[in-house]
Fold this sequence. Notes:
Strand content: over 45%
Largest sheet: 7 strands, antiparallel
Radius of gyration: 15 Å
Shape: globular
Order of helices and strands: EHHEEEEEE
CATH class: Alpha Beta
Distance between the termini: 27 Å
CATH topology: Alpha-D-Glucose-1,6-Bisphosphate, Chain A, domain 4
CATH architecture: 2-Layer Sandwich
Structural class: mainly beta
Amino acid sequence: MVNVFNLTMIEKTFEIRARPEKIWSIIADRQGIPKLQPNILEVEVDPPGLASVGQKFTFTYRIRGREVKVFGEHVEVIPHRMLKSKQLPQGMFKGFEDTMKLEGFDHLTRVTTMG
Length: 115
């Protein structure tokens, strides 16, 4: 028996009054993610440093009073423009992918997230 799930992609676009370089410096440094998402308690990155293809990361979330670990890997990185990650098999969501795209317009950045 084969189980097939219809997964819905969620896309959200918003604008931030900052240059793409500034936004990139925040999202590419996974150690800074808890500042943006307070429910993330801890971040582990291997190898350390800014996002790069093949870099693995572990987020420890607090969800409804419980700690949950999410394991991922960056699969495509275009500095200042795009960061694409996938969930690793031991993660909470099998096959989950997340993409963040940045488009710069003078001192404004349009951020589109898909996952």
